[in-house]
Amino acid sequence: MTATIERGSATAPVNSPKKAPARKRPGGFLGSSNGKKVVMAVTGAVMVLFLVAHMLGNLKIFFGRDSFNEYAHALRTLLEPIAPYRTLLTILEIVLVVSVVMHMWAAISLSRRASHARPVKYVAKKSQANGYATHIMRFGGVTILLFLIWHLLDLTFGVVNPEGVNSAPADRMISGFDASRWWVTLIYVVAVVMVGLHLRHGVWSAFQTLGWANRNRYRALRVTAAALSLVLVVGFLAPPLAITFGVIK
Ligand code: HEM
Fold first, then answer.
1. Pocket test for ligand 1, best of 94, 155, 173, 197 (most atoms within 8 A of CB)
2. Half-sphere exposure (CA, 13 Å, Cβ side) for 208?
3. Ligand 1 site, residue 96, Cβ cutoff 6 A
4. Ligand 1 pocket check: which of 156, 167, 172, 185 to mutate, most ligand atoms within 8 Å of Cβ?
5. How far is the CA of 204 from the centre of ligand 1 (A)?
6. Which parts of this chain are annotated as the region Disordered (predicted)?
7. CATH assignment of 34-244?
8. Ligand 1 center to residue 113 CA distance, Å?
9. Who has greater pLDDT, 47 or 17?
């Protein structure tokens, strides 16, 4: 008897009327927590690559105004004459804006999900253990966004820069961080340290999302995340501080 029942259930047709239909998650992969974490990791990686390139580009100011201006010009003319002026930079800007928006969307949506799930034990524990990180990520994210608005008005568009709109990039940078505008340098120091803290935790979280952070690699990956952040903080802050303290004139 028992054998008949077992064989019957094992060989039942896949679309048996008794079988409950598989529940579809709202929004598919992007609607799931894992999907959102992957979005955060991928868009975060795009932004880290941009930051590394941006930091290296900024260091050209140590080789003189012409070197920096040539680099800024090359960014706009790199694909000419195959593609029009500024094509590469426009593509980069679109990729960056999409990355920032998707990164924020995933972050807000994950944090809402975590707060709704708070009664569930392990989520509550995780949220307490990560209290510092949660605060630094939220507060840091908003600070970075505000800084970015100022930064673009200052060095990209020249609207709040002493050299004005129609000036060379190197002149905007050197006048922008003049000792008389020490408070601008201070804003950059605070913002870049925030970027560093945000990155340290973000890169580490991405390692976990990718499943790399097992017991053997735990320490090495934590150190990697911290080292990458430190290099970016030092590299980004070197030009503003060198200008404010008169090393670059
Ligand atoms: C603290 C040192 C920094 C300096 C000296 C600096 C300098 C500059 C300069 C000179 C430009 C204009 C480039 C051009 O018009 O050719 C620029 C653009 C930009 N920077 Fe920064 N930057 C710094 C940090 C950052 C940070 C930390 C971020 C991001 C969190 C950032 C994001 C951007 C973005 C998105 C653009 C616009 C790129 C574009 O579309 O043209 N920068 N930066």
1. 155
2. 12
3. yes
4. 156
5. 24
6. 1-29
7. 1.20.1300.10
8. 33
9. 47
236 lines ligand 1 (CB under 6 A): yes
Q: How many CB atoms lie within 10 A of CB 212?
A: 13
pLDDT tens sequence across 19-62: 555 555 557 888 888 899 999 999 999 999 999 999 999 999 99
Q: Whose CA is nearest to atom 27 of ligand 1?
A: 192
The rounded Cα 52 to chain-centroid distance in angstroms is: 11
For tokens 């094992």, the residue is 10
Asked whether 90 lines ligand 1 (CB < 6 A), one says: no
The token pair at 164 is 């004005």
**Residue spans per domain, the chain:** 34-244
What is the distance between the alpha carbons of residues 145 and 140, in angstroms, rounded to a whole number?
9
Give mean pLDDT, residues 100-120.
82
| C-alpha 108 – ligand 1 centre gap (Å) | 25
In sequence order, the 6+-apart residues with CB closer than 8 A to the CB of 193 are: 233
